[in-house]
Please model this.
Amino acid sequence: MNETVKKMVDIAFRDTPQTGEAKALYEQVLLDSQERFDDLTRAGMDEDEAIAAVVESLRGLEEALRTLPEEPEFEKAFEKSFEKSFEKSTEPAGFAQKDYVQENEDVPASYDGVQQLHLELKDVSVTLGASEDDAVHLEEVPDCVEVVRQGSSLLLRQKEDAAETRSFFFGLLSLTLHSHAGDRLFLRVPGRYLHLLQVQTVSGDISLEEASAPEMKLLSTSGNVEMSGVVDANARVEISTTSGDISFGEHMAAGSVKCTTISGDYGGAVSASSLHLEAGSGDMELEVDAERVYLSTRSGDLDLTGRIGTGQIRTISGDMDLNLEAQSLQIVSVSGDIDMNGSCREMNMATTSGDAEMQILGERVSLTTVSGDARLDMARASGAREINVHTTSGDGTVMLPNIPVQIFTQTRAGSVHCHRESSPGAEAVCRVQTISGDIDIP
Model:
């Protein structure tokens, strides 16, 4: 490792946030820069000139570094909040230990006047359907679940039922837990009257079948969460899992949706005014319709179709297959490949070492890569006004629309082969820059 190369990369990253995405980008750029230095010196360039070429190539990182988020890694924040939500001392809002009304025997079939519904379960799964009136109806309640009523709040909680047994081996004490993994709680809830629906499980699945509330909070460690036919244009939905999958079914509609998972997958169709989804290694295969969007994975792939108003889509090493209509979109990848088709009035795409291919209708489009190859097809974009392509060492192809375009090219050690005639004074402008890559403009 050349120490001067490392120092130059350290300087380039000195003001970047200390997040997992920034660290992954730093490692990739350091590797690329060292390989570039080695290639240049092997080709006969002296070390000072090779260092200068590496420094020049780092200037192409400015756009990618500006797009790095400043928030800490969501996994740490999520795990901390998730663990806190399951602390034994935590009680749902509206309940106090001394005021608990236990209703463990002869549980009523329905409860009127419930505005807050809390479910605290371990391995019991739960299905919630829609009530036809203003009451909460309990249709299936396993023996291991107790019901607690306090004013307008209702709590369904899985009992503590561990049994101690003495092991025959060396006289050691062991703990045997009764499993209720096959048990399921089924109830119907009144979306018109219920204000808050909060469900927590450890390994039990959570399923909502046309059930809704203005505010819904669903948390599970390894259980799956499925929303089927939930339609409430004003609802606020929060879903968190560690390894459980999150499915929106054939169509889920809400006002705002915020979901996080570490290794669970996303699936289904979702529409919302605000959509915020984060994943670690889980994949996203979604049909989306949202005004404001933030989608992020670390290594999970993204397969997206639909419509977006304004949004950001980010990944570190996951691949993206996007077929979208959008007004304004920012797409960022470190080493994952990007394949984008559709239309977007303003598009900004940046990758470090991942390849990028974009076939798009748009007015203002920017594509930046460090070492990844780029292919931009705007042949059908008759309304294009500004096209910017920048690569450091990646090769590229830029297909321009069949309209008059001013073309500006710049390169240091690479080459730009332009087969189109530039039209000075044209409204549409194309700027192509590369440090050492080869770019073709047919």
